[in-house]
Amino acid sequence: MTKESIYGLTRKEMEERLVEMGEKAFRAEQIWQWLYRKRVGSFEEMTNLSESLRQDLEDQFNFSPLKEEIVQRAEDKTTKFLFQLADKSMIETVLMYHHYGLSVCVTTQIGCNIGCRFCASGLLPKQRDLTTGEIVAQIMYIQRYLDARGEGDKVSHIVVMGIGEPFDNYDNVMRFLRIVNDDKGLAIGARHITVSTSGLAPKIREFAHEGIQVNLAVSLHASNNEVRSSMMRINRKYPMEELFDAIYEYTDLTNRRVTFEHIMIDDVNDRPEHAQELADLLKPMRKLAYVNLIPYNPVPENPYRRSKPEAITKFFDVLMQNNINCVVRKEFGTEIEAACGQLRSQYERKRRERRQREKA
Ligand code: SAH
Ligand code: SF4
């Protein structure tokens, strides 16, 4: 059996485990220091712990459940990592360099059951949720990769926008957020972390009550139910009226801004009348609504194509004229299969083809 990852425990849980092991609770803080400040890769290096404790930890936990399969670094330094997990599943994590810092895009599930028509991740049904340790390990692997480069770089931002629907793996994602945010550990500021959801309304309500300052992004992608349901079947379960009720509960409680992601797909959701409809929908939220226009990254398996640049500009102009905060998202590492999930789905396709060839 695979041992659990030491990265899967919150500091509080680590204290409890140590007490169960007959140790003093304060050891948790020491271990935490080794894990997240000195960022060692083995228990052996934790030299202020007794040898017997190090052995006990070794018996119960391992460090990273990730095995590096492929690393691709693009000209703009965007780096994609394809990892294999203990059960041989593959996940994808991306490091991006911005003017304001370094961000990592993490994966939360193997596959995704939401099945949005435009998305490469939704092509493969969910095999399982990632554990907390598997999500934290993605950040730690990349931070240690940066440490080894010796340039003093630190992961400063996190976007939970990789493969999977984070709110369909809610508890592990929340624990992940608390671990990376812990001020004795990586201490990545909650305001530097964004969680993106396809719109699971009940979970948005739950998130509103967490008392955590993490940013919320909603994959809206359309200005009315008809278009949204044609792209995202989740909209039939939680139509936009219900989604916005939940979003208003979130903004009423937190007074925090919500980012609306809107991928730009040619002739599906990108006409000027769609932009006006979207502006009318978001106007009541005033300055709390922030729209991110994302040029669509075509996936070979579906008929959607990217909007023409003129359509994106026009859409942007209509939103601005209506005083809706809006940006067109910069693209990262386009030459290395930039859209999350694409590297993995391509790899899986090749792996399937290879297996079929081997069988034949
Ligand atoms: N499941 C969550 C988070 C992961 S997807 C969600 O859907 O919000 C992160 C973002 O990338 C979402 O807004 C998603 O709609 C978008 N996306 C998915 N496939 C894309 C593609 N091929 N091109 C551009 N954006 C895409
Ligand atoms: Fe899942 Fe998000 Fe892709 Fe939809 S866009 S299939 S929710 S990962």
Question: What is the beta-strand fraction?
Answer: 15-25%
Count the strands? 14
Strand order of the largest sheet: 3-4-5-6-9-10-11-12-13-14
Overall pLDDT confidence:
93
Structural class: alpha/beta
- Helix/strand order, N-terminal first: EHHHEEEEEEEHEHEHEHHHEHEHEH
Please bin the fraction of helical residues: 25-40%
CATH class of the largest domain: Alpha Beta
Shape: globular
User: Sheet bearing the most strands, described?
Assistant: 10 strands, mixed
* Low-pLDDT runs: none
Report what the structure shows.
The structure is a single chain. The chain is of the alpha/beta class and 360 residues long. It has two domains: 59 residues, Orthogonal Bundle (DNA polymerase, domain 1), CATH 1.10.150; 287 residues, Aldolase class I (TIM Barrel, Alpha-Beta Barrel), CATH 3.20.20.70. Helices cover 38% and strands 19% of the residues. The chain is built from twelve helices and 14 strands. The strands form three sheets. Strands 3-4-5-6-9-10-11-12-13-14 form a ten-stranded mixed β-sheet, with helices on both faces. The protein has a two-stranded parallel ribbon with strand order 1-2. The protein has a two-stranded antiparallel ribbon with strand order 7-8. The longest helix has 18 residues. The protein is globular and about 70 Å long. The two termini are 33 Å apart. Bound molecules: S-adenosyl-L-homocysteine and iron/sulfur cluster (SF4). The site of S-adenosyl-L-homocysteine (SAH) has 17 residues, from β10 and β12. Iron/sulfur cluster binds next to loops.
